[in-house]
Specification:
The chain is an alpha/beta fold and 176 residues long. It has helices at residues 14-19, 35-47, 65-71, 74-77, 86-95, 136-141, 159-175, and strands at 23-30, 50-56, 79-83, 98-103, 110-111, 122-127, 144-147. The protein has seven helices and seven strands.
């Protein structure tokens, strides 16, 4: 085996990315503190052709060197929009017929393993604050909550890891 060179990977340039058919997901970052987490979500969104990222509340906005450190340019390819509050973003998404899905541990959550994607459905995936998770007000506004199964001693994943797990899973389910 030979390691593949970046030039051999056939990746899109920014213009090709912008004009490509996107997966109908919008990732909503609900008051994310870490700029490295924000950058990582941008990079993951780029990898899976996500429609956009909504940055809410205290979530920092590009351009910022600490976001760029992990985004590696994905802030230029992935569309994003800022909202003063997550509530404002969710109301906007509901008006545009998105199904609101919070990624959170709640009563009667749906396991990611069991979550079924519906054709012709647009999804907004809410990722919560590193300490407090998705705000209860936003959970209350959600159509459904997905929980990532965990089997060890810890109670949660890092936000960037959660985004990677959920986006990869939904990307695969949409492709089937």
């Amino acid at each position: 085996m030979r390691k593949t060179k970046n030039s051999e990977l056939g990746r899109k340039n920014i213009d090709e990315f912008k004009s490509a058919n996107k997966n109908s997901f919008i990732v909503v970052l609900d008051n994310i503190r870490s700029l490295n987490n924000i950058g990582s979500v941008f990079r993951t969104a780029d990898a899976f052709l996500i429609e956009a990222i909504y940055l809410c509340g205290i979530t920092a906005k590009p351009p910022h060197k600490d976001i760029q450190k992990t985004a590696l340019g994905a802030t230029l390819s992935v569309d994003w929009k800022y909202f003063e509050t997550t509530r404002e973003a969710v109301l906007n998404l509901k008006e545009n017929n998105f199904k609101i899905i919070s990624i959170e541990q709640v009563e009667n959550s749906t396991s990611l393993i069991d979550f079924k994607v519906l054709e012709n459905t647009k999804y907004a995936l809410i990722m919560g604050n590193e300490v407090k998770g998705v705000a209860q007000e936003i959970v209350d506004m959600s159509d459904e909550c997905i929980e990532i199964p965990q089997y060890g001693t810890k109670h949660s994943f890092n936000i960037s890891v959660s985004a990677g797990i959920v986006l990869w899973d939904l990307f695969c389910k949409f492709k089937k």
